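Cross-check.
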Amino acid sequence: MIHSLFLINNSGDIFLEKHWKSVVPQTICDYFFEVQRKVSEPTDVPPVIATPHHYLISVYRSDIFYVAVAQSEVPPLFVIEFLHRVCDTFTDYFSECNEQAINDHIVVVYELLEEMLDNGFPLATESNILKELIKPPNILNRVVNTVTGASNVSSELPTGSLSNVPWRRSGVKYPNNEVYFDVTEEIDCIIDKQGSIINIEIQGYIDSYTRLSGMPDLSLTFMNPRLLDDVSFHPCVRLKRWENEKVLSFMPPDGQFKLLTYHISGGMIQLPLYVRPQISFISGSSGRFDLTIGQKANLGKNIEKVVAIIQMPRQVLNCNLTPAVGSTSFDPVKKILRWEIGKINPQKNLPTLRGNITLVTGAPPPEDMPTITLEFRIGQYAVSGIKVNRLDIYGERYKPFKGVKYVTKAGKFQVRT
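Predicted model, tokenized:
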């Protein structure tokens, strides 16, 4: 299925390559670079590129292109999901997944890729199983491996490979049983200058962190499961029961994993924030920027960690803006204005950002207006209205434990002015 994998940074340098079935020369990436040069943003690169003898399937994560090479037709979503799993595994092992972290742990990276793919086909992709095969790097392991020449690969098979539940280790014991769920929603919303919603979509996912002894069987129900549409589950979820009863029944992996993702479009969705932009450009000289962000009066929750990211047009040379709350920074190369607002307090002054914009001398007024992306966090609140009703645990004599928490946080949305 997958013959080779190339990791490419934003500068166009191939800093890592891994081959399984046969060695594919780096020149195959010339087709990728040719397409990349034709797009303005890295995210605009098409995920599938057909060449005379190969298919290039790629994803873009953390300023890195993960480019998989296949010599025959394969389900592209299958490969894309595997590439995302590779990035998630690196993040779990190294706490971050960027070029520096990968280069610093290059030996572990090759060991992980060797275990995750067997002769071009995915084999072990669950984090808890991989950690039994390959120990996560730490200072002590690196010193011992350097002195002795040993590797991080375990000499024993993972316990999950010996059971009917390949994503869970057997014989797990914890003095305190606990399980956590984290609901995150990202909102893609287009509103006009008057604040009216033109289009709105929500992409949500539920992360879980379990520390349960034995082989527990969990059932999770929602108060309004009909809201969930286009749902994608972790392999541990029993699909039939969800289709018939709308109940999430699953035997979870040990540790952290993504339980499900869902998509909601349209409907009676109310935004927790409002945005009032007033942006104008004057030909050949400057422009005026005025942005106000506020919290809806009927929200009843505190909005924290608010960050506004404004993608300016390429004609913008500099921004001289004064925030009423927080601080700002402008990247003149990427043309990105970042406004760190923090917590919105409705009892105090509204967060406003006003000032002048300097354009390139003699440049015509920009045709594309800035795109505003908001990131924020709201505890115990989901914009879609999804709510957890009940969690039941079977299989062991679990005591009523206090570790169950339901934490929801709204994600981010875009405002096109």
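The helical segments are 29-36, 76-94, 99-104, 106-116, 127-133, 139-148, 239-245. The CA atoms of residues 66 and 417 lie 33 Å apart. Passed to J.P. for a second look.
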